[in-house]
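User: Show me a protein chain along with its predicted structure.
Assistant: Here is one chain, sequence first, then structure tokens.
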Amino acid sequence: MNNKRRLIIGCDHAAIKLKNEIIKYLTSKEAFDIVDVGCDSDKSVDYPDFAEKACIEVLKDQNNLGILMCGTGIGISIAANKVPGIRCALCHDYTTAKLTRDHNNANVLAMGERIVGTEVAKDIVDAFLNTQFSNGENHVRRINKINDIEAKYK
């Protein structure tokens, strides 16, 4: 029986190199079942399509996590956060990636290939994947308020 968590990874054309490097890095660790939802080339595509596809997969199980990438990480994170139930954080360093899990219980990480180098991206991914939500009372309260806002506009 496989007890690995599912990790959903997607990108647009501007982050194909970073996506492939991150998949290679994570595959060597054998800690996750990696689901690559694309894209698969540097031919121009629209990042909202891949953000939505990845987020739908993330939401299939509360233990799933996602990693999304585009040129800056901005567009794909905005698109991801339009999917109800997704808390996607755009991170540029280890600390923001760690705190987005610890404080915000983010279920999707976004990065930009043009913004972070491969080694920094690996550090960001490690922080995101190795940090658990603190369940601190103030953090739970704030996440519940985010959920209330989301429900109000469905």
